[in-house]
């Protein structure tokens, strides 16, 4: 492995950008911004949270009408946990045999360092891109914070997006995730002592327990999940991927009262070719029809809250889905370069996890997830990456960018 390539990886890993707790990436973003400026990029810094910001960096092409490329990477890493479980220091790169160890080497500082190294090489060779190259250096990916969404909102659109997050050098799309809250809320608060009038013949008190009504909501979500599992499918997605997980529940106030509020927090997984707006509508329609058939829920309608921009700040997240743009000439280019480097066909499929790539597609940019590192290493104790993996990824990225610089495609 080239020394400069390793130096760049060491630079990225040495900054502790764990998330949670987050709010710690600005010092590393300062370094990356300075590096990109040295390479001729014009940079814009967009504040996200205290000490966390997003960089949009543009290397202007020689032809303003030529196709543009977005390359996206996140600099936050998963929480290390108890570092006594680590055999190697998490915020240093340690080489043992054919592997490099350190937090983020697989997810995704290895991919990011390789991008910086490749951009330097192209610069040293005096290559200027024909179309704009936009690098998004984002934060917040690990806790569902919409760093990439913000980068897209503040930056230019492009004709293709490459997300260099962990993908074992497979070209991947992904299913989407959206979290939601459904609330059952009573218009009246009833004392425990009045339950007898509320539930028995002749009692004459129209009321209900929000907790008991929530059991109907949970049963309805289960029915919808079952229906989806039977009816929905997408190539390379395991059947039944469209799950609805009732993940967290809170409700009631005290044993002296009938529960007048109950909130359920749930996670929905949907297919690459679905949009979260449609999925949300399906769930709301289904639950509202169930509620319409319930005498009390009819008078005390369900309330919904969807998504959010951070699991830390507002208990919600969205990772939009994206399909693989296999008909895009940029995909063919990646296939060609991959074949030259690896000698066989570019493997493709659907990610078993979620990345920021969906925000690019949501923004109208055809997107490919393609990065080094193994998914089993992401977030693990003693995270590692094979040196060979980084080297061959570098060859693919270099080959791809070199050709894209000269002849960007749509
Ligand atoms: Zn990642």
TrEMBL record:
Record carries keyword ATP-binding: no
Cofactors named for this entry: Zn(2+); Co(2+)
Top EC class for this record: hydrolase
UniProt EC number: 3.5.1.16
Peptidase M20 dimerisation domain span: 194-292
NCBIfam families: DapE-ArgE (TIGR01910), PRK08596.1 (NF006370)
Family from the record: Belongs to the peptidase M20A family.
Name of this chain's protein: Acetylornithine deacetylase
Annotated organism of origin: Staphylococcus massiliensis S46
InterPro entries noted in UniProt: ArgE/DapE (IPR010182), Bact_exopeptidase_dim_dom (IPR036264), Peptidase_M20 (IPR002933), Peptidase_M20_dimer (IPR011650), Peptidase_M20A (IPR050072)
